[in-house]
Design brief:
By secondary structure, the protein is α/β, with parallel strands linked by helices. 44% of the residues lie in helices and 13% in strands. The radius of gyration is 24 Å and the shape is globular. The structure holds uridine-5'-diphosphate-xylopyranose (UDX).
Length: 446
């Protein structure tokens, strides 16, 4: 009989994983400790914008007309422990308040609550991004806690999903990585992931520390790639080069690859920034901080890009934001997401606002979250309204909607036709033809 699965934590990762596992044919029981989340998910809805996820929930959540009924939700750990053969722990691991390290309190609490109810053999699978060494510690803790004793095993199985592509990335991952200690754990995970593996997804089996490190290493590499191209953008600015052409040209080298070479206001979101900081903190604890000193530079280049966007805007405003109107296109940390966590767009908008500029922001999906975290900024219901009367327009999240904007129409409502493309994603020639000065980061002015 197919193993029964549970998912603990129904945030981005957990909600998507639960729905994807139901799609693969498993019976799934998902738990969260927040009643509002459970209520929403039981109705087939999600508290964030993620293309395709609500459709998948509608297809599988029990009680929804026409669904397979394979996916249910609960708040009860005892029910989860009783139900599941494999428990996926998907709670979040935010950055600690005021320091670089990773806050493990949600993972620890989930393991404690689950562990003490495990009266029958089960595999607990950690999916959260954790500092290396956590799985070792948690395996020892589970052995102490679980009434089933040695019948309970732990595995680590990092997740690489991108926001905006969460469903696709979960159902068709690039690779599946499992850190295990025993053959039984590996066999169970092979059963769970049989479909993607049959479709050709590589299945990498390793130990606990390596599996934990794969995730932080992957995110650190991606962050490094972005900061590298942003450093090249600074050089291009100084030397009169064009970073977009440079990225295209180096990207044809297969060893380098064309992806993640878009220069601009840099990376943000709930993963990349906090993961590289937590990685540095952990390396320090392990006494190998030297190995990751370059990540400090990756972080500071990234933050510098935000400052540079502010300076470009200031220059366009004649050296001072006071009395100037700034229209900001974008608030989410990237397109196809409503997530504003550590968003470069919102950070730049906020800096200009705090320096006296009159900022109006519009984002296709991120407005509610942006209003919540930065209520003092001005907001508009459309791109056209956001730029009305603006002395300068900043393009900071590369939504398709912004690429399709009519440069001439916007030109009629602004005070001055000045555009700063902080994402190198708009067609400068079109904007220039409509009478705008188009300025992109790391590109020639003319
Ligand atoms: C990332 C990883 O890609 C994913 O594998 C991991 O599981 C979680 O973290 P995500 O945070 O959803 O996913 O965003 P991603 O698409 O990686 O983009 C991260 C940030 O980098 C965004 O702010 C994006 O705008 C920025 N970025 C990306 C650039 O500035 N330039 C690029 O060329 C690519």
């Amino acid at each position: 009989m197919a193993p029964k699965l549970t998912v603990i934590g129904t945030g981005y990762l957990g909600a998507t994983h639960a729905a994807a596992m139901a799609e693969l044919g498993f019976e799934v029981l998902a738990l969260d400790v927040v009643p509002e989340k459970i209520e929403l998910l039981t109705a087939g809805r999600v508290p964030m914008y993620e293309p395709g996820l609500e459709e998948l929930l509608a297809k599988h959540v029990a009680g929804i007309e026409g669904s397979t009924g394979r996916l249910r939700f609960t708040m009860d750990y005892a029910e989860v422990a009783e139900f599941g053969d494999v428990h996926f722990v998907c709670v979040n691991t935010p950055q600690k308040h005021g320091e670089y390290g990773c806050d493990m309190s949600f993972v620890d609490a989930a393991m404690e609550s689950l562990g003490k109810h495990l009266t029958r053999p089960a595999l607990v699978v950690g999916k959260s991004t954790v500092p290396v060494g956590s799985a070792d510690r948690l395996a020892a803790r589970l052995a102490e806690l679980a009434p089933a004793g040695e019948g309970v095993e732990l595995a680590w199985n990092p997740e690489f999903l991108r926001e905006g592509f969460a469903v696709q990335d979960t159902l068709h991952p690039d690779r599946i990585v499992v850190g295990v200690r025993g053959e039984r754990a590996e066999a169970l995970l092979r059963e769970v992931y049989a479909t993607p593996v049959a479709e050709g997804t590589p299945f990498v089996v390793t130990d606990y520390p390596t599996s934990e490190l794969v995730k932080t290493a992957a995110n650190s590499f991606l962050a490094t790639k972005i900061s590298f191209i942003n450093a090249m953008a600074e050089i291009c600015e100084a030397a009169g080069g064009d970073v977009a052409k440079l990225a295209e040209a180096i990207g044809y080298d297969e060893r380098i690859g064309a992806k993640f070479l878009r220069a601009g206001v840099g990376f943000g979101g709930g993963c990349l920034p906090k993961d590289i900081r937590a990685f540095m903190a952990r390396a320090g604890e392990l006494g190998v901080d030297q190995a990751l000193t370059f990540l400090r530079e990756v972080d500071s280049i990234n933050m510098r890009q935000r400052g540079q966007a502010v300076e470009l805007a200031r220059e366009a405003c004649g050296g001072d934001f006071l009395g100037k109107r700034i229209g900001v296109l974008g608030a989410a940390f990237k397109p196809d997401s409503d997530d504003v966590r550590d968003s470069p767009a919102l950070n730049v908008a906020g800096q200009i606002h705090l320096q006296g500029g009159q900022v109006t922001v519009y984002d296709p999906k991120g407005m509610a979250n942006a209003r919540r975290v930065f209520p003092t900024l001005g907001y508009a219901e459309s791109a056209l309204e956001a730029v009305r009367g603006a002395d300068v327009v900043l393009h900071l999240t590369e939504w398709r909607e912004f690429r399709e904007l009519d440069a001439a129409e916007l030109g009629r409502v602004v005070s001055r036709r000045q555009l700063i493309d902080g994402r190198n994603a708009l067609d400068g020639s079109v904007w220039r033809a409509a009478g705008w000065t188009y300025r992109a980061m790391g590109r020639p002015r003319a």
